[in-house]
Specification:
heterodimer; A: about 300 residues; mainly alpha; two-stranded antiparallel ribbon; B: about 325 residues; two-stranded antiparallel sheet; 16 helices
Amino acid sequence: MTNEERKNLRNGLAFCSPWLIGFCVFTAIPVGLSFYYSLCDYRILQKPMFIGAANYQMLMDDSVFWKSLKNTLYYACLAIPSAMAVSLGLAMLLNVKIAGQHFYRTIIFLPSLVPVAASCMLWLWLLNGKLGLINALLAKVGINGPAWLTDVMLTTGSGASVTNYYWAMPALAFMSLWGTGQTVTIYLAGLQDVPQELYEAAEIDGAGILGRMRHVTLPMLSPVIFFNLIMSVIGVLQVFTVPYIMTEGGPARATYFLTMYLYDNAFKFLKFGYASALAWIQLLLILSLTGIAFWTSKRWVHYQGK
Amino acid sequence: MMTTYTHPGRSAPTRGGAPRPIAAELRKRKRSHPERFFTHLALLLICAGFLLPFVWMLSTSLKQLDEAMEFPPHFIPRKIDFARYNDVPTPVPQNYINVITSKRFDFPRFSRNTLIIAGLCVIGTVISSSLVAYGFARINFRGRSVLFGIMLSTMMIPFPVLMVSMFAIYHWLGDHTPIQFLGTFKPLWIGSFFGNAFYVFLLRQFFMTIPDELSEAARIDGCSEFGIFWKIILPLSKPALTVVALFTFMGAWNDFLGPLVYLQRPEHYTLALGLQAFQSQHGGTVWNQLMAASVLIILPVITLYFLKQKAFVQGIATTGLKG
């Protein structure tokens, strides 16, 4: 190592030291401890007691865990594709060069600024089954709106009656579309990177609007789509605040998410070991889903000039 | 991948010099009247949909409770009750005064708490993230790319995964050291003084665009590495630092789960937590006050956005594209 290299190493580590310390204290140690706790019977007031994989075994037989996992994945299936379609569509509309473009972009972006707690209050009121604006508007066109977040429906089958909860989850997914402005902004930036010549060439070759979208816009935008997909997978798997405030997981756990079960185990039942095992399942789920996304990305993500 | 993001309102730079005749013809056709008309129509309808919740919130926040609970509802309040100060009417609606002076929703205290936490987070994040970003962007040291890779991968670890063990650590520290963490603001801001991976990444991208010659010239003049950072790089990076400060502030202002886990007494609540407590105590029935409280929480953020619109848009665009 030359003098120059040694000096660089010293300076580099000095500048990075806040993160190096932070990484150890706020990431590495908690992650390690969390793994250790997940193998322990640990209630916050007692010392952790090593019990091996028992927490994970219990999780496998825990119907509430499976319910919360199913709900989380169901929400992901509702929210991720619809958010992607809506934000891409909006970005394309907002990319058309017309008067008032700036105004339109501002309006679409505004809701994404609203603090979650406030937008929960607002949507609780909008989705109110008796007095809410959404049902009032639906009534104007002759639709008798459901109770949305507290919607319960009984289906009587052969002998046994089954309770179904239809609208709570779709209502939450619909609400999430309101705050899609940030994603739209990212897509807009991506759209401006698509060379105009490609569209012109495609048009000369006889491609219509759909053809240009399919063969120019989507491939050119695929890195941005991929980025947004990864971010939304990570985001959706840790949904907590909205259902916690709006439904408390109800009706009958129809909107009970993985992170809520984690929170309840830790801070309501004080089962820190069990909660840590849940946290690890959640982390592995995120890693494997993003891993799958990365793996498939070779087939559909096109990087320009790389 | 480099990108140019054009701010809305400014036209995109033309590419490739003079347009070819066919291309010009095509462009003209593309902006034909019916197409433009339908784009306007679609955008107007969508924007109306996006704005409707805001209008509804504002409208409810100005109504009397019984008027707010009417069905079918109407948008324009019959009579807005304005507060009176020494019998002189003021332009502030009474509902807002009721919220601000309500015992259940201690607005002044919650705002103060939120501002303290958000302020400390902004200071911590701006200082620490810019230092770290400088290290990663402008000093070529051994192991840099490995460390940077590790840092990026930590962005995948969500807070819920860490919160249980972090809580246990703070609990342990409270028992074994004289410093209390749980039930204070500390857990909510301390972490921000140790660099945030996301903002380090954002600042690094910006620092890398500053020409190396500037640093070299200063180095020849005998300037220390910290001097270069402080006197040359930081002053040139104000736009990027603004973005980091804004986003950190917004993040702290919006945060719900952090305060929910770490704050225990109502007098420590932040606005977001206080609003939820207010709602759950009332069983969500005083809709006019709830909406007024929501407006009060949203207003500062929207104001900030209109003051610093360009920074917002560019910041978000950068996050998604300069990977």
